[in-house]
Amino acid sequence: MRMIGDGLSKKGRSGTVDDIRRRNDEKREVVGNSGLDDALKRIDPSWGLDVKPTLDFDFVRNEYGVYDGEDIVKGQFIDHATVSRNSVATYFDATGKMRTAGVNEPRFAYDPETGEPMGLLIEEQKTNLILQSENLTSGNWTLAANLTLDADVLVAPDGTLTGDRLTLIGSSGHNVVQSFSQIDGTTYTVSVYAKNVSNFSDFFQIAYYDGPSSVESKTVKITDNWERYSFTFTAQAGVASPQIRLLGFGFGGDGDQVGIWGVQLEVGSFESSYIKTEGSQVTRAADNYTRMFSEEFNSDEFTVVIDFDPLRSPSDTNFRPIMLSDGNTTNRIGTAGNFTIVSVDGVTSLGGLSPSLTAPGRLAISAKEGNIQYWFLGEKASEYIGNTDIKKLTTMLLGHAEANLVGTVPEMLLKRCTLYPISINEVYLKSITS
């Protein structure tokens, strides 16, 4: 299989790349845009060159290939990348059922309602501070007297018979309570899977209490199906007996029945994937994905394109959908939050990104000696001019920081990542990222 012209073997590579570079510098019109595949096919039909990616990770189609010096080697994602997550983690499969991925097993997410593939799920480390998240009979929970509990009688979102049913007595006094230790000024998010089992048409409350006194709360209308509801609050100074309360003191009527499962309390402004707990808090480790370069990487010039969905609006320097490095922070090219980052022999240059990476889209980084362009949503978001030392790059990091830094993106779906052995020019970068 020919990759570019007469191939990309080490023998004769420089002549081929020089020819590509010369032709790539010419401007040509690109008409329309019907997706990444079509745009890349139109990079330049007149070249007479078969320009294809030397690395293509398609997380939606579940297709993966890497150039080995002779041909594209197909395989599973784990055949081409190192997966590092030192814990189990949950996700939804194509049937809408919650599944648990094993240690160092990638999570490919699906829309729980439609079953459509969504891509590779990447999350930062999070801890569920709730104890016995699926067991309301535990002594960690306090149930009001006007509630009858039937444990493990409902099929839960993960397909197990672990959902608890609560039957209300009278018209008030229906609280489900667990105390926790707070850090003043810290933002927390509590989440719970809940459903109407019988006749519950009132509001369902999720609340932050100080002993018997309500501090802040949220009410929602639950449906006949398991759905996840969340509430975010900031721990206030002076709260002596912080509690999480569910269902609500004055909500629901006599004989109404509600299902509850999978309660989670975590630091942060949004709920992450569900973390099961029993007698102690449980931490889900961060998702880290790394590719060590081999024959697929052209150390003279390259373009990498990553199609992603941040899911949450990123606001800190841990948001790193892509980073190419020498394995540490000495030499690297990528993004850090809403900044570009270029490090050469330990000297780091930061640049602004406009448009910033706060929306789903395709980010392209086109690099050659002396110049790096960042394109996003059809616009040149940033440009770096100066020494690059591309030859020292050995590693591609997807969705996380270097090994000696802490943190990953808040939450992100990677849809596709492609690497090209040329520095694609501006005309086609605009088309590819539109």
Description:
This protein has 434 residues and is mainly beta. It folds into two domains: 13-85 and 287-433, Sandwich (Jelly Rolls), CATH 2.60.120; 128-284, Jelly Rolls (Sandwich). The chain has four helices and 31 strands. The chain has helices at residues 13-24, 36-41, 77-80, 426-433; strands at residues 55-58, 63-67, 72-75, 82-84, 89-92, 98-101, 108-110, 117-123, 126-128, 142-143, 147-155, 161-168, 176-179, 187-198, 204-210, 213-220, 227-234, 242-247, 257-267, 282-284, 288-292, 301-309, 322-325, 332-336, 339-344, 347-352, 361-368, 371-376, 379-385, 395-398, 411-420. Strands 1, 2, 3, 7, 8, 22, 27, 28, 29 and 31 form a ten-stranded antiparallel beta sheet that branches. It has a seven-stranded antiparallel beta sheet with strand order 4-21-30-23-24-25-26. It starts with 12 loop residues before the first helix and ends with a helix. The model is unreliable at 1-36 and 39-50 (pLDDT under 50).
